[in-house]
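Hello, quick one for you while I still have it in my head. No rush at all, and the record is pasted right below.
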Amino acid sequence: MKKAYVHSLESFGTVDGPGTRFVVFLKGCNLRCQFCHNPDTWKIDGAKMMDTMEILAEYEKVKEFCTGGITVTGGEPLLQLEFLIEFAKEAKSRGIHMCLDTSGGVYNSQNTRQDGLMRELFAYIDLVMLDIKQIDTTGHKQLVGIGNERVLKFAKFLDSIGQDMWIRHVLIPGITMDDKLLFKLGLFIGELKHVTGIEVLPYHTMALSKYENLNYDYPLAGVRPAEKEEAERARQIILIARKQVMEKNNS
């Protein structure tokens, strides 16, 4: 049985997919998002090694409080793809709703072995929460360290296999708070047939203490938090663009 690099386990998660959920935070990430609120998950140093049965044993202790199911997040969980397959398969055999929170940046459409593993994994995943950090590839690279080509191809891959997904986007003043970029994001989402939810999350600075404790510089020092009203306005722009595309495709 494969072991995972685990950062922590959380019960009663309310912002990690539908319902109240048991959340598995894995360690290791290929991105360095300037707004990341979990920089302590970037490296695998200090990880707790746990296998599928050990994690599910912890879930069983609190499952009456986690009626929504299990969400695996990180870090970037797809870096531990083979473990994820094993874990999701066992969870689904127990009737547990499985959600995966990912940025999709590890996807490689030219890697046939990865493609096979991905297809196997998503046979056991009910919902993917896909983070699209920035629709402009240059801006994406500036914001997280890599371009967004793999992320967008991953979204299209998920759509091609009929995988339900929520798209998540963080609204950052002066960076992603741009009407043209938001509209462009909506146009992209409009081409996807299996998006069942769109969330715009207002940028916050609650992770500042983590950066200080890790002796990391905080890249967005001085950037103000976004307001909930601004996030809702941004979501409406995305929805308008999405509707435009969907109506055109259905005409």
Remarks:
- Residues 39 and 210 are 7 Å apart (CA to CA).
- The radius of gyration is 18 Å.
- Strands lie at 3-13, 21-26, 48-51, 69-73, 98-102, 127-131, 165-171, 195-202.
- The chain has a mean pLDDT of 96.
